[in-house]
Amino acid sequence: MNLLAIVLILCASFFQGTFGLGMKHISPLKWENWWILHATVAMIIFPMAWSVIAIPDTFNIIMETSNDVLLIAMFFGFLWGIGGILFGMSVEYTGISITYGIVMGLAASMGSLIPLVQMETLPDNYTIVLAGVALLLVGVAITAYAGVQRDKLSNAVVQETEEELYEEEGDVLVAPDTAVTQVKKSIKVGVLIAVACGVLSALLNVGFSNASPIVDIAINKYNANATDASLVAWVVVLVGAYIMNAGYAIYQLIKNNSWSGFKVKGSQKAYMWSILAGLFWFAALGVYGQGAALMGELGAVIGWPMMLGISLIISNVWGYRMGEWDGAQKPFKQLLGGLAVLIFATCVLGYSNM
After folding, report:
1. Sorted alphabetically, which keywords does the UniProt record give (predicted)?
2. What percent of the chain has pLDDT over 70?
C-alpha cells in the first residue's frame, strides 16, 4: 500500500473524529442558526474553494459531465443529508462516543459494501474485505452494548440524586424550592436514530464512488492530478447534501421564527465552533479522497472504512476527556473491547489492499 495513502487516511481520520466536538457548543444559538452556517462552510464554501484552487477548471469539468452522473451523485448526497441531520440529534441522546461507534461502524460497512457490489468484477481479495466489514459490525454491536450499560448506570445515579433532593415533612415528600431535576434522554431512542444515520451516512461514499466519471474527465481531459481530481467529485455530491441540510435548517427557522437568533448575545464562541466543525468535516472528506485515489481501484471500498474505523479512536479520546464515561468503568472496558475489534477490522481492510 502507498505510504502516503496511509498518512492521508490517518489525517482524514483525525479530522473526522474531531469535528463532532463542535456540536457540543451550539448554545446559546438554536440548532437551526448554528447548523445552516456549519453546512454552508462544510458543504459549499470550503469544498468549492479548495477544488477551484487545486483545479481552476472545476466548473468546466462539471459542465462537461453527463446529467445522469451529476444527478445520481447529488441524489446520494441528498440522502446522506438526512443522515447528517440525524447525527446531530443522536449526539444529544448518546454523546459523541456512542454516536460515533454506531454511525461510523455502519457507515463504514455499508459504504464499503455497496461500491464493492457495484464493481463489474469482484477483486480476488473480496473475501478479506468482507471479513473486515463483518468485524466492523461486531465492533459496532459491542460499542452499542457498552453505551446501553453506561446509560443504565447514569440513570441509576440520577434517580438516587433526585430521591436525595426530597425532604420528608410528615407523611409528605416535598422537594426543596431550589431543586432542579433533568430527565435523561433515552439512549434507546438515540441508538435507533444512530442506526438510521449510519445507513444513510454510507451513501456519501456511494455518491463519491458513482461520481468517478467526473474524476476521469478531470484527469484525462484537463490533466488534473489524480489526488486533486476527487475534490471536483465532492463538490457535486455535496451540492445534494447541502440542499437537504440547508432546506431543513430553513424550515426550522421558519417554523420556530428564529431568524433573530443569529443576533443572540454571547454567541461568538458558538459561531467559531460552527465554522471550525465545518472546516474539519470537509477536511476529512477532501483528504480521504486524495488517499483513496492513491489506493487505486479499491480506494473507495477500503479507504472509507479505514478512515471511519480509525476516527473512532479519536472520537472516543475526546469523549473520555469530556467525562462521558466517568463512573462507568465496566462499560468503558466493554467500549475498549469494541474499539479493539474495530481497530483489528481496520487492519484487515488495510491488509486487503496490499
Report:
1. Cell inner membrane, Cell membrane, Membrane, Sugar transport, Symport, Transmembrane, Transmembrane helix, Transport
2. 88
